[in-house]
Amino acid sequence: MINTDLFRDFLHLVQSRNFSTTARDRGMSQSTLSRRIATLEDYVGADLFDRGIQPVALTEAGEMLLPLAQDILERMEEVRGIGHPDARRPDQKCHLIALSTLALHFFPDWLAQYAAEPVWQVDLLNTEPLLAANIRNFLLGQAEFLLTFADDRVPDLQALRHHRYIVLGHETAVPVTRPDAQGGPLWPLEGGAEIAYCGYTKGSFFQQALAPHFDKLGARIRKVRDNSMAAVIHGLVRQGHGMCWLPSVMVEDDLQSGVLVRAGGHEFDLETEIRLYRSHNMGRYAQSMWGAVSAGHQICRKAVRMA
């Protein structure tokens, strides 16, 4: 009978992609970890990692084992929970990283849906300006959960392609601008005029997700301001510096009052998912929370090879 802790070693290494990091976090020497992974490989009958590249990558056999190892450990936690009803003690907590817009406009109301007694204790960690930095902190184990906008065309999200997630909702980023004297868009996307654009910093989620619109508008669009936070850009657009795509949750009141108007039709909208990613490596408290918030959702996996 194989030790299920070997699956924990495996999942930690899948996330860290580094033997020394996993050995340190798992409280063992690197040589011990290597032997344990080799034991698992002997049991499976194939190499699970390509050790010839850095960071290490999953082999085809490793990709096949990944969802099975995840399911095995989750089932073991369920078995253990039968006789351990204190898995959700009030002195425990877990950690979540969220993009700034979601931290302000989505996270509080979403968590309030699960306000049974005792309330889930979730530390919301400081958000980095760029998507890649938030993903890096998540992969380094700073949080068990990552709450992010998602579009599979965004390159940085490929780093999460072997993590499970649930879709909590959808958000539409709409092109908005101050109105001109006649009430029309000051910076219209239709037509051939130059467009002043209050842009997202390179590497931010929306900067990457909006690439198809930038390609369509071509040289007409001219960046006049630059920031990684939608809240800051919202203020710049309201002041008339230019147009931008902003989450509808931020601008719906401005659109109703006429402070802002649409800069273009619905063909210029950007539809995104709101995803909650979970770590491969979670304690019983975080695992219990995942069970609660994922109930009724399809748990998704991306069947894509690590590169």
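That was protein one. Protein two is written in the same sequence-then-structure order:
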Amino acid sequence: MAPIILNCDLGEDESLEQTEQLLALIDAANIGCGFHAGSPEKTGASIELALKHKLRIGAHPGLPHAGGRGHILPTAKEFQHLLEQQFSSFQATAHALGTRAEYIKLHGSLYHAVETQPDLSAVYIHFLRQQVQPVAIFALAGGEFAQAAEAAGLSVVHEAFADRDYLPDGSLVPRVEQGAVLSQSEALERLASWQKNGKIPTRGGVPISLAADTLCVHGDSPDALELIRNIRTFLETHKIECSRSRFS
């Protein structure tokens, strides 16, 4: 397995103490923009802590309601406004602290919507291409959006999930379904299988081949800190390097 970036969704409703504990274990921080969870103050504090740990910093915009998840998706125009509002807010905070977002990773429903909604995918790609400074994208490994973004000349970091169950088509089991979020033992067992043969076990189907540049653990997953520690130990034991260098 090639060097991998260990990332985490955070800067949301976890305590600042947990935020820093998570940051000490990862390579890239997907920090909430203060709309679906957290606050502008929490975003700023999380960026400061990420700088302290010399991490890659990414903006993590989401639907502007509690949890950032739901079946009601924005129109293309609403999505454009959401991206402009949340990313500009994040960048303003980051610039005030002497840094910027190197990448964007959509949160929750939006992350999955660009896989299946061509109008939203097109808006997202257009938005990213309009940025004065290049911004990379964290996108679902093997997904439709990653292919479309690469075809548009954008820098894509292919992402796999350590703590989520997969379906045979390479998408994630919806969070509303029981067992969608894996236990620590299940996550580590699956990581070992992936490291051994490059395949991810799926629910109700045969394992699928999956190549990824980065591995995500959600900061709000049960025992997230312990899981990330054990993943880091696993990667080190198997001499799988983690990467903290900047994106190309």
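The mean pLDDT is 92. Keep this in mind for the problem set.
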